[in-house]
Specification:
Elements: E1 3-7, H1 12-23, E2 27-32, H2 38-41, E3 50-53, H3 59-69, E4 73-76, H4 83-86, H5 90-115, E5 120-126, H6 136-155, E6 158-164, E7 167-168, H7 177-189, E8 196-198, E9 204-205, E10 208-209, H8 210-220, E11 229-231, E12 237-238, H9 239-250, E13 259-261, E14 273-274, H10 279-285, H11 293-310
Parallel strand pairs: 1-2, 1-4, 2-3, 4-5, 5-6, 6-11, 7-10, 8-13, 9-14
Antiparallel strand pairs: 9-12
Helix pairs in contact: 1-8, 3-5, 5-6, 7-9, 7-11, 9-11
Length: 320
C-alpha cells in the first residue's frame, strides 16, 4: 500500500488532500503541531488519517517519521500561513517556512541514501513569492522553493513545488479575511452582526477552490520528472468582488451600507494584483480548476450560515 506523509494535515489543504488520497486507497499519515489543538478541533474531517504530532522545526522528529512510516510521498503543506501576520513574527516565519524545509529535504535525502526508498517531495509554494510586496512570508516561501530546486538539481531528489495562488474553502480559518467576510455576511443575514470592518478592498487575487488545487499537487508527484508548476484558475477578482458575492449569497442587499473601511487593517505592504497562468499545469497534468469563484464564495457562506444556525463549528459535511 502506498503511504503519504502530509504535514499540516489539519489545515484546509491537508484535509482535502487526505480525503482524496484515502479515497484512492493510500495510507495517510498526517502531522499536526504539538500543543496546537488542531487535531482535536479538526477531528471531524480526519477520520482514517494516522495522526502524529511533529513540529516542522524538529529535524530529528521528522526523520523519525520517515523511518517509522516509510512514505513514498511527502506533501509539505504545514507552516506559517498568514501573509499579514508574518510582518509581526519574521524570525519565526523564516524558521518554519524556510529553514525547516531545508532540513526536511536533507532528511529525505539521507533516508533515501540509507534505505533506497524512492520518496517524492512536494512543497506547497506560494504566488506571494512573485508579488511586488516582499513580506516575510513571501521571503520564507522563496527560500523554501530554492531549497527544492537545489535538492532536485544537486542531489537528484524528486522534489517539486506547486506554486499555489489563493484558494479557499469552508475550512479556511476565521482569522483570514476571506472567512472574515463570509462569516460576517452570514451573521448579518441572521441579524447577529451589524457591520463589517475591512482594510484595502482593491487588491486582486486569483481565487480558486482548495479541493481543486490539492488535486493538482497530488498529480504533480505522478509526473515522470519533477517540475515546479503554477496552480491557479487564470481569473482574478478583487476583494470588493468577494464582499459583493458573499453578501449576495447570504441574501443581504446593499453590502456597502454594512461595510466600513478601517485604515488599521491595511497591511504594511501588499501586492496589488497576483494573477496565475495554469497553462503548463493543464498541459502536463491534464488539470484545470473546475470550481468557479462564485461557487467557492457561495459554498463558504452556506457553511457559515449552517455554523451559526446550529452552533456546530466543525462537521464532516462542511468539507464541500
Amino acid at each position: 500500500m502506498s503511504t503519504a506523509l502530509v504535514t499540516g494535515v489539519a489545515g484546509q489543504d491537508g484535509v482535502y488532500l487526505a480525503h482524496r488520497l484515502l479515497a484512492m486507497g493510500t495510507r495517510v499519515v498526517g502531522t499536526t503541531r504539538p500543543g496546537s489543538g488542531s487535531a482535536a478541533a479538526m477531528a471531524p474531517y480526519l477520520d482514517g488519517v494516522l495522526l502524529e504530532e511533529c513540529d516542522l522545526r524538529d529535524a530529528e522528529g521528522f526523520a523519525a517519521l520517515l523511518e517509522r512510516h516509510r512514505p513514498d510521498r511527502v506533501f509539505n503543506l504545514g507552516g506559517f500561513t498568514s501573509v499579514g501576520a508574518s510582518w509581526d513574527q519574521p524570525e519565526l516565519v523564516a524558521e518554519v517556512n524556510g529553514a525547516a524545509v531545508e532540513r526536511m529535504l536533507a532528511a529525505v535525502r539521507d533516508h533515501r541514501d540509507r534505505t533506497g526508498d524512492d520518496v517524492r517531495f512536494l512543497q506547497a509554494a506560494s504566488a506571494e513569492e512573485h508579488g511586488d510586496a516582499r513580506s516575510p512570508y513571501a521571503e520564507s516561501k522563496a527560500r523554501a522553493r530554492e531549497a527544492v530546486r537545489r535538492a532536485r538539481s544537486e542531489h537528484g531528489l524528486f522534489a517539486c513545488a506547486g506554486v499555489l495562488h489563493n484558494h479557499e474553502s469552508p475550512l479556511r480559518p476565521a482569522r483570514f479575511v476571506t472567512r472574515k467576510i463570509t462569516t460576517a455576511a452570514a451573521a448579518i443575514a441572521l441579524g447577529r452582526q451589524e457591520r463589517l470592518r475591512l482594510g484595502t478592498l482593491e487588491v486582486a487575487r486569483d481565487w480558486g477552490a482548495a479541493r481543486d488545487h490539492v488535486e493538482a499537487l497530488r498529480l504533480m508527484l505522478d509526473l515522470p520528472e519533477p517540475r515546479d508548476l503554477v496552480v491557479a484558475t487564470g481569473v482574478t477578482h478583487t476583494l470588493r468582488d468577494l464582499v459583493e458575492q458573499a453578501f449576495a449569497a447570504a441574501g443581504v442587499d446593499d453590502a456597502w451600507a454594512r461595510v466600513d473601511h478601517d485604515p488599521a487593517l491595511v497591511r504594511p505592504q501588499d501586492s496589488a494584483a497576483l494573477a496565475g497562468d495554469p497553462g503548463e499545469a493543464e498541459r502536463l497534468l491534464g488539470w484545470r480548476a473546475t470550481t468557479s469563484f462564485e461557487d467557492v464564495v457561495r459554498t463558504m457562506v452556506e457553511v457559515d450560515l449552517e455554523r451559526l444556525r446550529t452552533g456546530v463549528a466543525e462537521r464532516a459535511d462542511y468539507a464541500r
